[in-house]
């Protein structure tokens, strides 16, 4: 197990499948049907215990940039795990999972793509059964074909399996070997928020 | 799915750094923003490319150039490729062809190899085996390359860093400090002293010169308090004013050419401009490391754009890349945009790439080169700047600037370096750049030399890095008695054992465009055109430009990045929490939701 205690998780999937809602349910225990046009989510953090170890997960939202495939490479960089979400009532959102997984592998280019910790969530299972378009069986078969990706059926609205899914992804991410930097670099310069902008020069 | 708005306060065309800063600032102040780019990537003319994307860009520039010559027109209004011309490609010859190529099954790798082959077909007279082997080797690490069309760094104290901190974008970007600046003098690159320590320890500067230099630099640090002492020179050339400090010609060159962020040096600057420029440089010393500049990792420009664009998206901005723009019209006081979907906007902010009427545009051309090498220009130095003043290599007319970035800037695989060359275009500038490349780099793989190294190293024949370290140790043993700084000098005077190899070198001309006059700018109050960024090293001017445009658009907003909304929301939350148990609240909310949907 790696010594990491901060994990970057990103949530991918078509627009409208409930990515932001899942995040909010998990971190803030809140669900809202209303779309907030002004403030989206940047990233949310939550502390979790995984096998007696306290881990901070930092979950990055796509901020709507997924809608027209406009997530830049910077968004994917340094992800430790990736959650792929589709809506069980929407066939297209299931069919695009393949593209999202590919896109992730290309953009994030993880060192060990075959064992990279993915997880698949079939969301909105609270809606009536008659609306459902993708069976659990079919989804699980897809996950199996992609190297046994763990699969969860969730509802961000009713808080079903949300906690469990995040717990699982954190655990899997920790199992992943840490990439040890091979060179001793001068540290990179970090601009943290506490830093005050330099005051304009005096006397002018 | 959420209905997409079709009308916006602002439609922004182009995701260059300035447009992206504006997008972020507008969204943060509750303006609705639709941000569009005609390219697949972020950054506009400040973009950076992986190796395969770089090859594709070269091919596209060539195709576009040919098309322009035949004067065919397309109906896409994106003119991104129109600012790059006359591209020349040279690929190292004599590269080792592997005896048996490993079989490749990965479809991305296969695709990349195809691009390499296509590239040779289009740009070379024939597909030579050694060149294909070289390109395939480079493209293996495709995604470790971030090759920038407008490499930039930032002053550690200045408007750009201030803005990043205020906008709280520290989480999105990483920097490493630039290590050293060199200036070409007497046929070698000499280290430019960056700190007082450097000046004191320098062997190149005589004690008396040190005093004069210190006197001058100390004055510059306080120059705004001592206006009367340079009043009579204010509008005269800075070079004249510097002479009054009786500095030797080399130090005058350092001041005019090396320690500033101007595109062409301060040769033609007035004293007022020059002092401001030197001051900006000195002010940034001593914050992070020994140099005033920090280098954004992963190629810079497009990373910076992505950071600002993400912050815009988080505040509701809508992003659409890779858009073919069919038409853009102004009627009934609105902009009508027809791309993947149709939109309207009250205001339009546009980079020059999307400007249909280019008649009011003024162009300054620069000759540039991008070179990928196996070694740094100076041993063990990664992120660095090299200045060639006018008249120092084969009578070059204008100042030539080189920027080197390697693995430490996260824009290359290990033991590869990117070197960018830039100079203002003249009738001889292309030749001048060719001269510089010829002088500094090897264009052939010398096999006899490789064999020699192999013998020396025995088993470890692959690791170039090791060779260098071994050489280093030899040096240290030779001048055991010397102290540290002397050793450094020794190293500098030492002739490079072998020049870096230019695996691929690409020379091209880039047009930097700006609007001719202010009148046209104010033609329509709802239209803002963003001039191209100049190729000077720092990011200060474009940031100031973007911020001043914002102030013109919204003089009523005092603090661009104040956080009133978040605070309000927190307050709201606290009140709610005070009233109810959290769980209750959720069920209530859910019920309310259900009521609505029924
Ligand atoms: C060639 C040159 C000369 C400069 N001369 C002056 C000057 O005379 N006055 C001025 O106000 N600014 C001068 N500056 C600008 C100055 O170095 C920095 O802008 C400023 O000192 C940064 O403040 P600091 O407190 O962060 O770093 P500092 O504390 O100044 O440290 C910066 C570096 O200089 C070294 N240093 C500091 N003081 C001395 C000293 N007395 N002797 C040897 N090394 C020292 C430090 O060890 C460090 O490496 C000069 C800059 C350059 C490039
Ligand atoms: N019924 C139901 N609706 C959901 C669920 N998750 C999200 N939604 C709704 O689906 C819509 C889109 O959700 P959002 O989180 O914005 O999706 P995103 O675009 O993937 O981030 C919103 O109206 C949510 O309220 C769920 O589990 N069940
Ligand atoms: Mg969302």
UniProtKB/TrEMBL annotation, chain A:
Stretches assigned to coiled coil: none
Keywords: GTP-binding, Lipoprotein, Nucleotide-binding, Prenylation
Lineage of the species this protein comes from: Eukaryota, Fungi, Fungi incertae sedis, Chytridiomycota, Chytridiomycota incertae sedis
CDD domains: Rab7
Highest taxon of the lineage: Eukaryota
Family under the similarity heading: Belongs to the small GTPase superfamily. Rab family.
Record-given protein name: Uncharacterized protein
GO CC field: fungal-type vacuole membrane; late endosome
UniProtKB/TrEMBL annotation, chain B:
Composition-biased stretches (Basic and acidic residues): 572-583
Annotated region (Disordered), positions in chain: 448-502, 558-598
Keywords, alphabetical: Cytoplasm, GTPase activation, Transferase
Protein localization: Cytoplasm
Family matches, as Pfam families: GDI
GO biological process, one term: small GTPase-mediated signal transduction
Signal peptide residues on this chain, from the entry's feature table: none
SUPFAM superfamilies for this protein: FAD-linked reductases, C-terminal domain, FAD/NAD(P)-binding domain
Compositional bias of kind Acidic residues: 478-496
Domain of life: Eukaryota
Family: Belongs to the Rab GDI family.
Function statement: Substrate-binding subunit of the Rab geranylgeranyltransferase (GGTase) complex. Binds unprenylated Rab proteins.
Record-given protein name: Rab escort protein 1
Taxonomic source organism: Piromyces finnis
